[in-house]
Every structure is written in C-alpha cells, then in structure tokens.
Amino acid sequence: MLRLVHRLMSLQWRWHGAAIRQRSIAGSVVWYADFPARPERRPRSGRGRRAPRRAPTLVLFHGLGASSTSFYPVVPFLRRAYRVVVPDLPGCGASRPPRGREFLGFSELVDVAEAFVAEVAPGGAYVAGNSMGGWIATKVAARRPDLVTGMALLNPGGPALRAEDWVDFARILWAEEKGTMDEWLRRMFHRPPLYMRLFLREFRRVMKAPSVAQLMSSLRPEDFLSEAEVEKVRSPAVLVWGEKDRLIPDGCKAFYLKKLKGVRYEPVPDCGHCPQLECPSRTAQILLELPALAAARRPRGAHPQLPAGGGGGTRARTPVPRRRGGLVAVARAPKS
Known about the structure:
This protein is an alpha/beta fold. The chain contains 13 helices and 10 strands.
C-alpha cells in the first residue's frame, strides 16, 4: 500500500514539474525528486519584469522508516524560494542499498547523504531533516561545513543520551503486543490524521524491516552525536520543535539548544514529531527564512534580519506562502 502511495505521489510530483532521477552512490541507488524553483516575478516599474535570481538548493532528509513523501505538504511552499531536492535514503521508498544487502548502517547512510549533497549541489546547499534526517544533516554539517550553507532540524534525534532515556522509544519500536502501533501514532502526532489508521499494518511492517529494525540494532556509540562533533558545525541552524512530540526524549531538544552554537529555536505548538506534516505552513515559513539567517551570519555584506540564536528578536519579513482555496498565495510574515 505504501509503495503504491509513493508511486502515485511521484507521478503527481512529475506532473507538477519535478524531475524524477536516480543516482548510484557507493553501490546504493538513490531515488529523488528534483523540483525547480518557482519564485514570483515582481514587475520593475518602467522596465518590465525583474528576472528572478538563481534559487539556492534545499535538500530534505526524511526520518526513520519514512520516505520523501513525508515532505509532500511543504514542497509547494518551499519552491517559492528554493530548488527543492527530496531523496529516499537507501532502503526506504524507492531507493535501494547495494546488491546483496538488506540495509545500510547509520554511518554508511551519512556517507551516502554527504555524497548526495555534494553531487546535486556542488557549491553547497541548505539542508533540512526530520527525526533521523535531522541527525544525518547534523553529521553532514559537522563533517563538511563547505557543503551546508544553512540547516533546519525538525524534531531531530541523535544525541548521545543515557540509555534509559530511549527505553520507551525502544519499547514502541520492538514491542509485539496489540495496540502498540496505535500508541505509536498517538505519540507521533498531536492529532493523528484519521487516514493514518488505514496504514497501521503497513507501518508495522516497515518498523520490522531491516532498514529500521536492523539499523537500530546495529548502532554504535560513535554513530550518536557528541558535543565535540556538534561544535564542528559552522552553518547557521534553526531547531524546529513540535512541542507535542511524545516519541523521542526531551533530552534531544535540550542537547541541541545547549550544544549547537547560535542555534535559533522555533517551537511549534499543537504539533507532534513531524512538523512538516502537521503544521506545513508554519514549518515552510521557518525554512524560507534560512537564507536571511545565513546572511546575518556572514562577516561582510550581512543584512541582520534574523537573530543568530534563540527565539526572540525581530522576525524577518520573508514572503511566506499559504494555501487559499487550494492555490498557493504569498503573504508577509507577521511582525512579532
């Protein structure tokens, strides 16, 4: 069922102008959708229309057991400012690990993600990731500061917390008792969409698949994020946190806020573990502000429209898309 949804989604994406491509990276086949930017052209008085600047690239990494389709609600918004690239990590969606293997270890996934960003955006890209995707994005930013222009982390995992902090997560991940997936849905979402219940059996199958179960079992201490590793991140970063997340430990949020230098904190109330699904308009608004955040961090020619850290200060008046009557319209972000 989920495979059928993925195929239908990719057909719709192609219909809306995405190029559906594959790349071979270290033996893995990485499927991805490549959306060209669709910025609004504003007329220049007396001189016709202003030609749009070349849009920066934004790469979106999905979470554990998910796929590129988890970013479906935010892609139309983000195309106003970015070329948007959405891959399936090997073992998920339409991407495959090397022949003869059922899954990649976490460090191998990071290697593939790093190589993927380098290939699709050699000059650097903005990177965003949800859950495990945020963990991977942070690893890439620490290893290759030249590749990551700015970073958005959506309820990311990854810190080297105490083992007991993850007991409840592991219970849900591996438990066999009836009702576990229903509990997983309630912990994942603040208000679980009704249609999600139609896929509970499929979700259970995914969580038992090698790309999830064996990946989690094979994690090593060095796979988790250390303080020293996070200190190597040089790109401006924003932490987007659905405040109703009951899936991963609160220690993850505390770790990023304390250890990731200059991180901007953006709490999203009434939202669970996947802000891009439950609150797509608000999440897109935050991601659209990444270029202004990066500009504020540049030593020369900077336009400090956003604060470098924390959630306070004056919000940049970045054009923010929102849906009206099924169409995407542009609105100005409200003053704080």
